[in-house]
């Protein structure tokens, strides 16, 4: 697995690639840095996203997880930039309880690229966020996209 780190408005991020696909995005600076074409493209797209110039990522993603979690993550990928969806609505689409969707969101290995920040509680509350900074980071990402004023 190769990694490349970058600075961002939500802190340092490390993008990991395995066998031609992005497999994780983690907060913090990775120890080993490798500039592959895919990692450089992912960094470029993330920089454009944070600059407000990119609304949809075009990268091969291969998150490791259970079949159920992958279904939830696929559901999150269908939430458009600048929009939000509820845990319950995603749960309905995969035929599962909302609480299990929250667990899958928290286990998302590729946050931002798989936009778990766009998933909110039914009452309009933020719910949680597993990235550094927790809900504050979620709010920052939603404001960046114009989903929150």
Query: Which CATH C-level class of the largest domain is it?
Result: Mainly Alpha
CATH architectural category of the largest domain: Orthogonal Bundle
CATH-level-4 superfamily name of the largest domain: Winged helix-like DNA-binding domain superfamily/Winged helix DNA-binding domain
Helix content: 25-40%
Discrete helix count = 5
State which percent range the strand residues make up: 5-15%
Structural features:
5 strands, Arc Repressor Mutant, subunit A, 3-stranded antiparallel β-sheet, globular, 2 domains, two-stranded parallel sheet, 149 residues, 5 helices, alpha+beta
Topology of helices and strands:
Blueprint: E1 2-6, E2 13-18, E3 21-27, H1 37-50, H2 67-77, E4 85-86, H3 87-94, H4 98-106, E5 119-120, H5 135-144
Parallel strand pairs: 4-5
Antiparallel strand pairs: 1-2, 2-3
Description:
This protein is α+β, with helices and mostly antiparallel strands and 149 residues long. The protein has 2 domains: 2-50, no CATH class; 67-144, Winged helix-like DNA-binding domain superfamily/Winged helix DNA-binding domain (Arc Repressor Mutant, subunit A), CATH 1.10.10.10. 35% of the residues lie in helices and 15% in strands. It contains 5 helices and 5 strands. It has helices at residues 37-50, 67-77, 87-94, 98-106, 135-144, and strands spanning 2-6, 13-18, 21-27, 85-86, 119-120. The strands form 2 sheets. It has a 3-stranded antiparallel beta sheet with strand order 1-2-3, covered by helices on one side. Strands 4-5 form a two-stranded parallel ribbon. A hairpin with a 6-residue loop joins strand 1 (2-6) and strand 2 (13-18).
């Amino acid at each position: 697995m190769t990694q490349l780190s970058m600075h961002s408005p939500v802190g340092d991020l490390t993008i990991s690639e395995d066998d031609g696909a992005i497999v994780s995005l983690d907060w913090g600076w990775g120890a080993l840095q490798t500039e592959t074409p895919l990692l450089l493209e992912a960094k470029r797209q993330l920089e454009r996203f944070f600059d407000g110039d990119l609304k949809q990522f075009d990268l091969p993603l291969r998150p490791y997880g259970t079949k159920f979690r992958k279904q939830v993550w696929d559901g999150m990928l269908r939430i458009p930039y600048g929009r939000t969806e509820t845990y319950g609505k995603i749960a309905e689409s995969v035929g599962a309880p909302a609480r299990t969707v929250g667990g899958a969101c928290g286990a998302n290995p590729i946050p931002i690229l798989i936009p778990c920040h766009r998933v909110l509680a039914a009452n309009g509350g933020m719910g949680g966020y597993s990235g550094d900074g927790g809900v504050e980071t979620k709010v920052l990402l939603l404001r960046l996209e114009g989903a929150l004023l």
